[in-house]
Amino acid sequence: MIGVLLLLFLLPFLLYIAAPQIRKMLSSGVCTSTVQLPGKVAVVTGANTGIGKETAKELAQRGARVYLACRDVQKGELVAREIQIMTGNQQVLVRKLDLADTKSIRAFAKGFLAEEKHLHILINNAGVMMCPYSKTADGFEMHIGVNHLGHFLLTHLLLEKLKESAPSRVVNVSSLAHHLGRIHFHNLQGEKFYHAGLAYCHSKLANILFTQELARRLKGSGVTTYSVHPGTVNSELVRHSYLMRWIWWLFSFFIKTSQQGAQTSLYCALTEGLEVLNGNHFSDCHVAWVSAQARNETVARRLWDVSCDLLGIPVD
Ligand SMILES: NC(=O)c1ccc[n+]([C@@H]2O[C@H](COP(=O)([O-])OP(=O)(O)OC[C@H]3O[C@@H](n4cnc5c(N)ncnc54)[C@H](OP(=O)(O)O)[C@@H]3O)[C@@H](O)[C@H]2O)c1
């Protein structure tokens, strides 16, 4: 009895001591590519914090000109300065991009296309999770609007530049949560039924379906695309849910840091010879299993057409 009580008493202390080792075990998957990026151009969405910031930092460290595409330019500028100082790379630039507003997305793309000759790496990283029901400037439900439709439009607008710059890559940051997602075409905007957690899962499923359809359409173009699950990462993603914030705080010693969370995005952006795995989903720097719905080509094609329709892009 005394032994059990002693163990219970010591358990939090033992867990605290073991936390770095447990975190290391749970965050296998490190991008070991030694590729350097002088002369290369990269865009990272949502790069002012979390996984996006760490992804941008590593790309800058390797010599790329990196665009931090952020909705809050002031936050972005502070981070750009921090990355410039840490990496010695002055080519870290901030541009305004609000994925919840197609006007802002079009303005970002217009500005980028006017000032840059190339785009080699596009990391569609920004995301929102568990927002109370709300809509984007264009009337799309926030999760599907920002996480899927915003990045769909951005990629579409930058596609010619990516093709001209081939070999080039598009990395879409999805999630393991896609397993709970479904594409309800009759309720894409959550107007008939809405659950904040599920809305996130649906949008993350859309990221994978988009990746697969994009890969099919880009075959032979020299542009390849990958979706990733970054792991469970200690970031600001849970900001909209009190419960999730509390759970994240409780397990913060064990879950990945943002730097560890960036590894799979970096792996897909940098690893040489990955072109043969065009369209695949990755986790911990390995190809990962996706749900049956995420492998459904018919749903992927239909989602593509519906997305074009909603965004006023001619369907080809
Ligand atoms: N953290 C995890 O455990 C986890 C797990 C699986 C997948 N992911 C995915 O990883 C990606 C990065 O998330 P994170 O964990 O790094 O979260 P985070 O720290 O909350 O970062 C999200 C980024 O997205 C930006 N963003 C949100 N709405 C935007 C909008 N309308 N326009 C432009 N940017 C917007 C945020 O900007 P502000 O700072 O201005 O809000 C922020 O820079 C997301 O796609 C997420 O779904 C994360």
From TrEMBL:
Keywords, sorted A to Z: Lipid metabolism, NADP, Oxidoreductase, Signal
InterPro entries: NAD(P)-bd_dom_sf (IPR036291), SDR_fam (IPR002347)
EC number: 1.1.1.300
Pathway connected to this protein: Cofactor metabolism; retinol metabolism
Gene3D superfamilies: NAD(P)-binding Rossmann-like Domain
Similarity comment text for this entry: Belongs to the short-chain dehydrogenases/reductases (SDR) family.
Name of the protein in question: NADP-retinol dehydrogenase
Organism: Balaenoptera musculus (Blue whale)
Gene field: RDH11
